[in-house]
Amino acid sequence: MTDTPWLDDACSLVEAFRSGERSPVEEVEASLAAIEASDLNAFSFIDPDRALDAARAADVSKPFGGVPIGVKELDQVEGWPDTGASLVFADRLARYTGEAPRRFISDGGAVPVGLTTASEFGGLNVSVTKLNGVTHNPWRHGRTCGGSSGGSGSAVVGGLVSIATGGDGGGSIRIPAGYTGLFGMKGTYGRISRGPSAHFRPGTIVSGVLARSVRDAARHYDVVAGVDPYDPTSLPNPGGWEDGLGSVDLRGKRVAIMPSIAGVRLESGVEAQLRRAAGDLVTLTGMEVVDVDLRLPNLAAQWAMGNLSTLLAELEGRWPKCAPLMTDEVALGAILAQSLYNLHLASVAEAQRIEAYQAMAAAFERVDYIITSTNPGPAFPAEATTSAPTDNFIDTAKSSPPLRFLFRRLMASIRVANGVFPRLSNALVEATVSKVPDLVTMGGLTIISNIYGNPACSIPAGLVDGLPVGMQVLAPHHRDAELFDLAWVYEREIGWPKVAPSVAAAASASV
């Protein structure tokens, strides 16, 4: 019997299966025991019987044959809960398996053990919901894993499973990767299918994994990327992602090092650590540092308004009666969107999108890559429902039932006023952002690559205050392989812990 789950990467676990060092059944049993004993709250649902049956039938010749995995609870696995991480759909079951997890499981041979926690409807970059409670960061209990793929990050770096799925519509793979010290890759838009329900809006979402190594993420690309007739935006898969690691000649490539973009304020120590990590990467690869003037609009506020307006369709007529069941920030955000989002705000958002396209295209005419921070700082308290400081208007609005009622009445009045003064909505959004800029800080560093659709990854880049921070590298469209190579060089020469120190120490003590 294996005492603890595998603490190296998923690829090496497959090698251990093939050599007979470990068995899929023992590994699943170890993962299930670790999840049961864990206080991280990284999983919202476990299916031991299915996992053990799949482990007994595992084909270890497949790329991930026999590897226990977590599946983000916003993904669908037929017969498993399909809650959207919300009390609104607490009893809903998935009627199908999404194409990306299907390929991971069926084609890749991975063994799903359960669903990892996520933020409600993927709407917040935090690790707390009314349905599941608080998910903790294994690097420091009581700190966030970010979101929306926070449970996947917690499960992987917490030693429960060696790899887990994620989704990134505004940073939701890279943000948790940055906070938990994992590798997170957001590919070119369309690289991995969103089928069979590939909604057009918001046109930013990319699937992927939270991984302990670059080769794990590259192998995942080999298995799941490719055309899907149910997703008309899906791209062909050239293959060779893992085998091609190390094949790109990076010497002489031009790179801009910009610790912050889009006016996001970094916390103390982050810029210095980012510059050290970026300097190491430049030295290792022989790249040439180039100065670029990249002026981006902060798209987070207008983008969020548009996305929240689409939430009403998913609520299927339950709105607004279901509001008390929802995370306060998501419910209040939906009220804001319903009140403020109009054609004028949409036109402003579209103008900003084109401005961002032009700024990014002009930057990539001068450089091959842009290096920036993944998050503004290290992980903040886990119980926080926003990364903003306390005492902002959302905290005030949700603090008591009378204030919530007054807030809704105010929003109803604004909705009426918008019909007469259509520019009012954007003026209010801009005023809020100017008064409380930290409300849209987290995600401000990552969202541009979702809007523009280019590939971007988060590479573990050391510690600030004893907690991981991420180095985000952006590349032009369809140059995903180059990001894998940049990260692979950094991992090979400098490296990072595969699991949190407390997990590694506990495993050593048990030997």
The coarse overall form would be globular
- Arrangement of strands in the largest sheet: 6-8-7-12-13-11-9-10
Low-pLDDT segments, ≥5 res: none
Question: Average pLDDT, to the nearest integer?
Answer: 90
CATH architecture of the largest domain: Alpha-Beta Complex
DSSP strand content: 5-15%
Measured between the Cα atoms of the first and last residue, the distance is 13 Å
In short:
The protein is an alpha+beta fold and 511 residues long. The chain has helices spanning 10-19, 24-37, 48-56, 99-107, 150-157, 174-180, 214-224, 270-285, 300-314, 328-340, 343-366, 393-398, 401-420, 424-435, 447-452, 480-493, 501-510; strands at 43-46, 68-72, 111-116, 128-129, 133-134, 163-168, 183-186, 206-211, 254-257, 288-289, 369-373, 456-464, 467-474.
Give an overview in words:
By secondary structure, this protein is α+β, with helices and mostly antiparallel strands. It has 2 domains: 10-248 and 478-510, Amidase signature (AS) enzymes (Alpha-Beta Complex); 300-351 and 389-435, no CATH class. The chain has 17 helices and 13 strands. The chain has helices spanning 10-19, 24-37, 48-56, 99-107, 150-157, 174-180, 214-224, 270-285, 300-314, 328-340, 343-366, 393-398, 401-420, 424-435, 447-452, 480-493, 501-510, and strands at residues 43-46, 68-72, 111-116, 128-129, 133-134, 163-168, 183-186, 206-211, 254-257, 288-289, 369-373, 456-464, 467-474. The strands form 3 sheets. It has an 8-stranded mixed beta sheet with strand order 6-8-7-12-13-11-9-10, with helices on both faces. Strand 9, helix 8 and strand 10 (288-289) form a beta-alpha-beta unit. The protein is globular, with a radius of gyration of 22 Å. The relative contact order is 0.14.
